[in-house]
Amino acid sequence: MNLPKLPRDIIRPEDEPGRDKELWQPNWKCFCCHDTGTVQPYLVRMVIDGYRWESDKIPVCQNPSCIAASGISQGLEPYLDYRLDAAICQQLDLIDRDGWRETLRNANQRLNTQALAQKMNLRQRDRSSTEEMEARQRHASAREGWGSEAQSEEERQWLVGRNAE
């Protein structure tokens, strides 16, 4: 019986061989609060020294272009901090946007470096896990000097002469 041959149907197209992988992009509009309405703790620490999210009041995002804070429950009022004004939140938004741009630049550079290394690689295939482990062990032994002990009298004499120089 002759069955038809069907092409593969890959679930995640980005996993296809030879296809460039897309870098994850955040989908939030406000980088100050990531559309949660409360300023991200790592950003708050830039403004409030020693800030601890588990025990301090929660700073509310005041970024004028952000509407997420309107969704915060009214019952949380005693736990909210409104001291970060619009100007501060806008600055924090810009800082985090710049951080994402830098992250993307670094990731693209890393991907480009890996692709170049792969093109220049003389191996026909990637190392197996066993080959990778052996290579790491050889590298560690060379770096740490393992196995560099003289195995014969001739080697001992050569090492002594080399160390004397």
Describe the secondary structure blueprint for this structure.
Blueprint: H1 41-44, E1 58-59, E2 80-81, H2 86-120, H3 129-144, H4 153-164
Parallel strand pairs: 1-2
Q: Based on CA inertia axes, which overall geometry fits?
A: flat
Alpha plus pi helix count: 4
> What is the typical, i.e. mean, pLDDT?
84
Low-confidence stretches: none
Question: Main beta sheet, described?
Answer: 2 strands, parallel
- The whole-angstrom Rg is 28 Å
Number of strands: 2
Order of helices and strands: HEEHHH
Could you say which structural class the secondary elements and strand pairing correspond to?
Answer: mainly alpha
- In the sheet with the most strands, the strands line up as 1-2
Question: What would you say this structure looks like, in words?
Answer:
The chain has 165 residues and is mainly alpha-helical. Helices cover 41% and strands 2% of the residues. The chain has 4 helices and 2 strands. 13% of the residues are buried.
Search tags:
165 residues, mainly alpha, two-stranded parallel ribbon, 4 helices, 41% helix
Quick structural overview:
The protein has 165 residues and is mostly helical. The chain has four helices and two strands; from the N terminus they run αββααα.
